[in-house]
Amino acid sequence: MSLSAAHSAAFRREVPQERRVWSIRDAAGFPAPRDAAGNRAMPFWSKPTRAKRVVGTVAAYRGFDVVEIPFSDWLDDWLPGLQRDGLLVGVNWAGGRATGYDVAPARIAEWFAELPGPISRAGGRTARRAG
Hints:
By secondary structure, the protein is α+β, with helices and mostly antiparallel strands. It has helices at about 5-20, 50-55, 70-85, 105-110; strands at about 20-25, 40-45, 65-70, 90-95, 100-105.
C-alpha cells in the first residue's frame, strides 16, 4: 500500500470517529492549489495533528491556522460547495510537499453515506483561496 493510500484509509477510518475534519487557512482564506493537470484541491485532515504537521513543515503553509470543521457541516455545506466550485478534496496530505490523494467531493460523500444519523444534502458555502 502506498503512503497516499494509507493516509486515505486513515482518513476514512478516523473522520467518523472524530466527527470533524480539519483544514488550514490564513488571512487570504483556505488554500486550493492546482496540481500539474490544473485541477484544484482543498486539503482536509482527519486529525489536527496531521494538519499541524503540514503547517509546521511545508514552507507554503507556514503561518496558516488549523481550523476545525464539524463533520455534519462539512458533509452538508462544504462538500456540495466544493463540487459546485469544481474543487477536489485533498485527503490527509502529508510530507515535505503536502501531497496525497485528491478525491471528488461526491466520492467522499459516498464514503460516509452509510454512517448513522441524518445527513442532508442541502447546498451550502465554501471559502477558497484564489491563486
